[in-house]
Amino acid sequence: MAKITDKIKSFFSRKTLSMTNSKKQVEWSIRISNSALVGGLLVLIALLFVAVMALVAYTPVLDLFPGYRTAAERAHDELIQNIMRVDSLERTMSQFQQYSDNISMVMDGKTPVLRSQLNDTIQYDKTLIKPSHADSLLRSQMEGDGEYSLSHVVVPKEREGELFAAPIQGGKIVRHFSSKENYMGVTLQVAPNSPITSVGDGTVMSIISNDSGYSTVVIQHYNGFVSVYYNLLQPMVTRAQAVKSGQVLGYNSMPQVGDTENPLFEMELWSDGKAVDPEIYMVF
């Protein structure tokens, strides 16, 4: 028991820790007990622990250690990268849209505008793209009445009726085109449920249905021609579909022969925004 008491007293008793030079002269000394030394070490360790925790919590020091980031942090990084990809895709799509709009403006005879980017935001410059002299000459040739005009349709007299195919076989015209009567097409008496075909290659612009269940199909052709087909049942095409000459568009709406209460098949042919006589361009 006395030995234990002596050890406890020795643990708490102060001892002198000193440094001497080569001449055994004391340069530095301190009186400290073993308990104070142990306590100081514990306090130092605690301070180091707090400092390390603060460094980890408030600084990106862990980024220096590969593979240490948590799953949540990695998911956050992937989300940021996906957002950047979506933003880049959106800018690319906007550029394509602007390119398409400029092409449409050029085709309509308008002047496109320049596009500029500032701070990742697409803006439109008010500066117009002025056409060059060569552009002006080309536009005058394509839009005028010359040999290379887009609106110029060369139809030889001996082949006027062969430019387009008839939309139906065996039809009898009961009403002709008449600008005086403001009737812009032709009306045909045909057999019940006869197939109506496209008069030429083109693209379906629109399909309009009325309350009676009949449909109107509009097709854009080359050289600025547009054909319109009225009173169709069961349209066989869809909007923006490319069609060939002779392709079935639908069926006429007369359910039986001699039914005068139902509309006959009607069609119109337009060229550059003006109605023309279909009998000039096709043989019925």
What does this structure look like?
Residues about 115-125 and about 150-160 have low confidence and may be disordered. The protein folds into 3 domains: about 1-60, no CATH class; about 70-150, no CATH class; about 160-280, Glucose Permease (Domain IIA) (Distorted Sandwich), CATH 2.70.70. About 15% of the residues are buried. By secondary structure, it is of the alpha+beta class. The chain has helices at about 1-10, 35-60, 70-105, 135-145, 280, and strands at about 15-20, 25-35, 115-120, 120-130, 170-175, 185-190, 195, 200-210, 215-220, 225-235, 240-245, 250, 265-270, 275.
The Cα radius of gyration reads 45 Å
CATH domain class name of the largest domain: Mainly Beta
Q: Please give the share of residues in helix.
A: 25-40%
Tally of structural domains: 3
- Taking the alpha carbons of the first and last residues, their distance comes to 132 Å
At CATH level 2, the architecture of the largest domain is: Distorted Sandwich
- Series of secondary-structure elements, N-terminal to C-terminal: HEEHHEEHEEEEEEEEEEH
User: What is the total tally of β strands?
Assistant: 14
Gross morphology is rod-shaped
Uncertain runs are 117-124, 151-161
- Helix and strand content put the structural class at alpha+beta
Largest sheet, in brief, is: 10 strands, antiparallel
Average of pLDDT: 78
Strand content: 25-35%
CATH superfamily of the largest domain: Glucose Permease (Domain IIA)
CATH T-level fold name of the largest domain: Glucose Permease (Domain IIA)
Discrete helix count:
5
